[in-house]
Amino acid sequence: MAIFKEVNTFVKFPKIEKQILKFWEKNKVFEKLRDLREENEKYIFLEGPPTANGLPHVGHVLTRCLKDLYLRYKTMQGYNVSPLIGGWDCHGLPVEIEVEKKLGLDSKPEILEYGVKKFNQQCRQSVMKYVNEWVNMTKRVGFWIDMDNAYVTMEDYYIESVWWSLKQLWEKGLLIEGYKVIPSCPRCEVTLSSHEYSQGLKETEDPSITIKFSTEDEEDTYFLAWTTTPWTLISNVGLAVNPNLDYVKVEVEGEKYYLAKDRLEAIFPDEEYEIVETIKGKELEGKRYEQLFKYVKLPPEEEKKGFRVVTADFVTLEEGTGIVHTAPAFGPEDYELAQEKDLPFVQPVNSNGTFKEEVTPWAGMFIKDADKYIVKDLRKKDLLVTDTREKHTSGFCWRCDTPTMYYARDAWLIKMSSLREEILATNEQINWVPHHLKHGRFGDFLDNIVDWALSRERFWGTPLPIWTCPNDHKICMGSVEELQSYMKEDLPEDFELHQPWIDEIKVYCSECGEELTREPFVIDCWYESGSATFAQWHYPFKHQEEFKEHFPIDFITEAIDQTRGWFYTLLAISTALFNKPAYLNCLTMGHVLDSEGVKMSKHLGNVVQPASVYNTVGADPMRWYFFMFPVWNPTRFSIDIIEDAQRRFFSTLWNIYSFFVTNINIDNIDPRTIKNKVAERSILDQWLISKLNSLIVRVRENLDQFEAHKATAAIDEFVVENLSNWYVRRSRRRFWSNEITKDKKDALKTLYETLVALCKILAPFTPFAAEELYQNLVRGLAKGKQKKEVPLSVHFEPFPEKETTMINPQLEEAMDFSIGVVEAGRAARAKANLKIRLPLQELIVVCSEPYQKMAKQFLSEIKDELNVKEVVFQSELSGIVEYELVPKFNLIGPKFKQHAPVIGNTIKDLEGKKAKQAVQEMQKSHQFTLQTEEGSFEIDEDFVDIISSGKEGYTEGIFDNGQAFISTELTPELVQEGLVRDIIRRIQSMRKEADLEYTQKIKLYYQGDKEVQEAVKKWQDYIKNETLTTEINHGTSKKGIEKTWDIDGTEVTIIMLPLEEKVK
């Protein structure tokens, strides 16, 4: 009976992964793991809640894979990751928009007509529409998280905790009512917070116009102002200048204009002008001008306040004319300036972004659509000085992509600006990955923090818990119990904390007894998700101790755009409530792009469905690919790219795994019975075990720093380069030995220990492949009662710890140097177009004596790998490299003047020992002494170019700390041996094509010319040993597999007869 289950190298990962999923589910592996870690030290995690009203895409897959990697790692370190539960973000505009599309509704009035109750019921159903798809994707990619007990932001317990937090802010004076110019979406008729607005910023092309405002007291004289929003000119009530800047009145073609002096050339680059007067901006204050558009009628007293010049420090010379047109209803700075300077307020635009009736030419027209007509009207009135288009950053709704507008409205705000210093201080306690975000993208956002526009004039969300009575008494409810205390009747049985139920109950003022009316808003859904640290526990109403144990969070990770979304709201709320950071480690992710680096979208048809990847290539190769690069950078993604990663790493790993199982099954040796200590094994075994332990150190360090790409690169290098391309290659003859020697046992034991350690190292990265290896290599050895002593799953195992005594830095350095020699030798061969199977006479290695000692330990390996007969070591390049020095006359001339010709010619004539001596002097002191017929000169190394060339008959390869020179001379004996090696390669190829087992013997017939026959006859024992051949005959056979090969112009026919006999 075989020791291990046989392993097929032609592995189908999706099939294996589905089998592993069944194993996990049948044995409740995840649940048992949580039980095992329940009493251990906690590692606190918080899931950023997705909304399940849309299907998951590959960006969500990256998020879930990355979370799983770090949480599995922490679990294998012995931590109890808690609470290891998911979350669902349920409220907000995105949900409403999807339901509007489904119901064919286009506006708030249509929703009201349809019915808020029915609409919100549709929203409740919509947010859970694709829960099954999300859960299935989460399981399929191997993310172990409890989705059955996920927190849900639309449930009453969660909303009540959110109410409690708002009550705390209310009592601290941080939740206030105000009239504010706020970013708004005209399509959704909803305000946007600063972090929502920043997520929708795009570069767009808009009108860029300079307009004439006619002065009241000077004929043919105008103020020049600039804008990129012509539609706001309808609402202009003032012009702002900087009090301390220089302004001029200039005459151009009979008209006079006021503008900033330093903007003259920008506005009039080609026109002739005369400066009539130069004055400071403050001297213009109070000058009046005529209303540009007279559609908005103001009362006489308000009209007197408007249409005048005011001063403002925010006016700069970076663009425009130095005079800023002011429309208080549509800009925060304009509004504040109007308040300060007592300018009138006009708002001829509806909240849906259309002009009101008084703007007769464009009534009912969307403001952006009206821009071109307004510009046309200004041109017709000869009030347009410049008219171009300009690219600049504009706001768009982060969900529906409609151009946003600043709009003055009643709003409830959180005074985040008053907490700026506290938030900056809590941010200092957070470890950001990458680190530059702390004081860069995120820190800059915090430096410019503004008050949080909390209220939304929408339907599906947490109701703002503030009630007002006719006498303007206000109360903020902090709980359902508090709400009940203001009622005369019990809450109805079907009551829930949503509209319309919350507005159908009767609540009475405790001060005057009048009925209270709730402020007609829901809150920003980002506030809800930002409350997850405590609201998931229904804190403070329940689970107070659990919350305290789980705050702050140890680790969160989401996409980079959450720096102005969830990452910000978590920190802002936790600072406002507890003056602590919500989280201690924050890892950000870049976006997943298509293979060409383009953002995926349905419109472009470049969206890759996750299922198409993990059902074709597998989830583990997809995970591995994601981890190969810094996750905070954008990732290009396609099935072809994943397949390339699979071929390099997974195919290599599986070939090694299959190779080991095949060989140990042949010998029928239980690796547990091989007791030889590492120190008693070969130097190659000791090197591999040292490399393995060094790998453990690197992986741990990298994962602890949240740099999975470095850990992945280290594992990849170990498996592909160290294990496959070196250790297994160098050990094949040990494994294929017919006798079960100590050396063979040592090789089997070393490879077994390495594969077992690897499956544990890989467990957080590739949980399916790791489990497959573990179940065969570890659990597969356990029989009967032994099964109970062996952990059920690789994920129950502790993450490998380094064995310090097994790490031998000197041995690793020596082997790494020797591998460097081999790689340089291969490069030299390639340069001379000499294939590796063609033996060569000599390799000369030039390096320092300490490195020579290192390489001599592995002399046989270097010879074998490079197929050379002799390796010679030298400390210097003498006799191998010839130098030519080329003078730089452009530098020599100015310095040495009349001596330059002689110096230049003398340098050119240097050769042999003299050239070498000059190079050696430069290597030591960066200059050399040159003897000429005109005297001795010191020549700096910058004054010459050094051209080196190898000795004739040798080619050069360069590596760290040395150079390798390989002889290119070919003798008849070397050519013959090369032919034999080529014949062996063709036989091995035929064995592979015939799908023969590693151990299956063969019989050979061959045909070829005299040279072929002589070569086979001389080397037949070597051919037999290398190809598991029992007999070689010159001639033909009617049986067997026949193939004719062209080997560098020599025709060789080989007939292979597979035998039943196998190597024992």
CATH superfamily of the largest domain: HUPs
- Provide the low-confidence segments as ranges: none
Major sheet: order of its strands?
12-10-11-8-7-15
User: How far apart are the termini?
Assistant: 15 Å
What is the residue-averaged pLDDT?
Answer: 92
- Roughly what percent helix? 40-55%
CATH class wording of the largest domain:
Alpha Beta
CATH topology of the largest domain: Rossmann fold
Return the domain count. Answer: 6
Number of contiguous helices: 37
How large is the radius of gyration?
A: 39 Å
The beta-strand count equals: 40
Query: How can the largest sheet be summarized?
Result: 6 strands, mixed
Inertia-based shape:
globular
Structural class: alpha/beta
Give the second-level CATH assignment, the architecture of the largest domain: 3-Layer(aba) Sandwich
Estimated share of beta-strand residues: 15-25%
List the helices and strands and how they pair.
Elements: H1 13-26, H2 29-37, E1 42-44, H3 58-76, E2 80-82, E3 85-88, H4 93-103, H5 108-114, H6 116-126, H7 131-140, E4 146-152, H8 156-171, E5 175-185, E6 190-191, H9 194-199, E7 201-214, E8 221-227, E9 238-241, E10 246-252, E11 255-260, H10 264-267, E12 274-280, H11 300-305, E13 308-311, E14 323-326, H12 332-341, H13 367-380, E15 384-395, E16 405-414, H14 420-427, E17 431-433, H15 441-447, E18 452-453, E19 455-456, E20 466-468, E21 474-476, H16 480-485, H17 501-504, E22 507-508, E23 515-518, E24 522-523, H18 525-529, H19 532-535, H20 544-549, E25 556-559, H21 566-578, E26 585-589, E27 592-593, H22 610-614, H23 619-627, E28 635-636, H24 639-667, H25 683-704, H26 708-736, H27 742-762, H28 767-777, H29 786-789, H30 809-831, E29 840-846, H31 849-856, H32 859-866, E30 868-874, E31 881-887, H33 889-896, H34 900-909, H35 912-925, E32 927-932, E33 935-940, E34 944-950, E35 954-959, E36 962-967, H36 972-993, E37 1000-1007, H37 1010-1027, E38 1029-1034, E39 1041-1047, E40 1050-1062
Parallel strand pairs: 1-2, 3-4, 8-11, 9-13, 17-26, 25-26, 27-28, 29-30, 37-38
Antiparallel strand pairs: 5-6, 5-16, 7-8, 7-15, 9-14, 10-11, 10-12, 16-18, 19-24, 20-21, 20-23, 22-23, 29-36, 31-34, 32-33, 35-36, 37-40, 39-40
Helix pairs in contact: 1-28, 4-6, 14-21, 23-24, 24-26, 24-27, 25-26, 25-27, 25-30, 26-27, 27-28, 30-31, 30-32, 33-34, 36-37
